[in-house]
Amino acid sequence: MTPTILKTRSRVRSFALSLPGAVEEFPWGDSAVVKVNKKIFVFLGAEGDTESAGISVKLKDEEAHGHALTVPGAAPTAYGLGRSGWVSVPLTGESAPAELLCDWVEESYRTIAPKRLVAQLDAR
Q1: 16 CB contacts (<8 Å, ≥6 apart)?
Q2: Which of 121, 101, 103, 102 is nearest to 113 (CA)?
Q3: What are phi and psi of 99, to 5 degrees?
Q4: CB 65: neighbour CB atoms within 10 A?
Q5: Which tens digit of pLDDT belongs to each residue from 18-76?
Q6: What are phi and psi of 48, to 5 degrees?
Q7: Is residue 54 a contact partner of residue 75, using CB atoms and an 8 Å limit?
Q8: Is the separation of the CB atoms in 87 and 76 below 8 Å?
Q9: 3-state class (DSSP) for residue 78
C-alpha cells in the first residue's frame, strides 16, 4: 500500500470518526467499519490491506452515486448492498481525492444517522 493510499484512508477514517456519534468497530476481525446509532455508514476495510484497499459508502443522491461509480474500479457493493445504494470505491492512485471521499462519507452519514445527530453536524 503506497503512502498516498495510507494517507487517504487515514484521512477518510479521521473524518468519519469526527462526525457526531460516530464509533469505529471491527465486526469481522481486522476489517474496520464506522457506525452511527449502531448502523454502519462506511466500510473502511483492513488498515494494512494492500490487495483491495477501499471504502464503501451509501449514496442515495443519484448524482453522487453516479459520480462515485465513475471512479476506476468502483462498483455497487457486494452482498446485495449495491441494490440499496452502497458503492465500493477502491483506494488506488486513480482514486477520487480525499476531499471527495470525505464528501461521500458525509452523504452516507446523513443517510444513516438520526435527525438529531445530523442537526448537530449542521450546527457546527
Answers
A1: 22, 34, 41, 42, 44, 105, 109
A2: 121
A3: -60, -45
A4: 18
A5: 999 999 999 988 889 999 999 999 999 887 765 678 999 999 999 999 999 999 999 99
A6: -95, 15
A7: no
A8: yes
A9: coil
